[in-house]
Amino acid sequence: MATATLLTWLLVTQASKPAPDAPSRPAPVVNETFVADPAWKFLGKDLWFDPKGRQVVLRTRVVQDDVSLEFFLCTKGAKDHETVLTTEAPPMLIQAALILSGAEPGHPVRFEPKFEPPAGTPISIRAEWERDGQKKQADARQWIKESRSGLVLQQDWVFAGSVTFEDRRTKRPVFAADDGTLFTVANFASAILDLPYRSTDANAELSYVAHKGQIPPIGTPVTLFLSPRKPVAAEPSKP
């Protein structure tokens, strides 16, 4: 499906769903001292698009800081025991917002007939929060480390793009990430963002844990800024 068609389908499909908790007109959002920039386009609960910066703005909250991980971000109440952050933003609109930013969805992990790692535009994730009245920020990868080596995550997540499938009972399309699987550190076919190599929660293979001491205290509201990673310019060849 072409990117423009996919984006239209995502927005129209999500808009057709009942959303009693979503305001019909976006009011100024204040959460602690957080205030949404008026220039941002409100897309849904806890979710904006910054046209000037071409980035997605996503409000989240810390739920774990010292556990084995399968996820970095999940929908609130879905996988809270094995993720660093949760959000109440609609999964389908997160995917649509990433497309608006210029990111191109690739494909989720494939296990059959042979393993193919997730692919798509690399995504930069900057985390911003407040502590003792001071604004803090960090590269989100610093909050995750490899369980055996202790090295922090080095590679960007990629915009795999979650899949849509037909419900066998209702015959209606289902967006896989609606199960709460958003940004993962173990490969999931339903993930919106995933790591571009084989990763698992199994002890015998590459697995990740929360980087305690780097992550803000549990309960801290965190704003994520997501944008397509700009390609590194090649050095000019020497004569």
Describe the fold and architecture.
- It is a single chain.
- The protein is mainly β and 239 residues long.
- The protein has one domain.
- The chain contains 2 helices and 20 strands.
- Strand 4 and strand 5 form a beta hairpin.
- Helix 1 runs antiparallel to helix 2 (91-100).
- Residues 12-31 have low confidence and may be disordered.
Largest β-sheet summary = 11 strands, mixed
Our count of domains comes out at 1
Inertia-based shape: globular
Poorly predicted regions: 12-31
* First and last CA, distance: 44 Å
Mean pLDDT: 84
Order of helices and strands: HEEEEEEEEHEEEEEEEEEEEE
Whole-number radius of gyration?
Answer: 18 Å
Oligomer: single chain
**Pairing-aware structural class of the strands and helices?**
mainly beta
Strand content: 25-35%
Q: Which range best describes the helical content: under 10%, 10-25%, 25-40%, 40-55%, 55-70% or over 70%?
A: under 10%
The number of distinct helices, counting runs of at least 4 residues, comes to: 2
- The count of strands amounts to 20
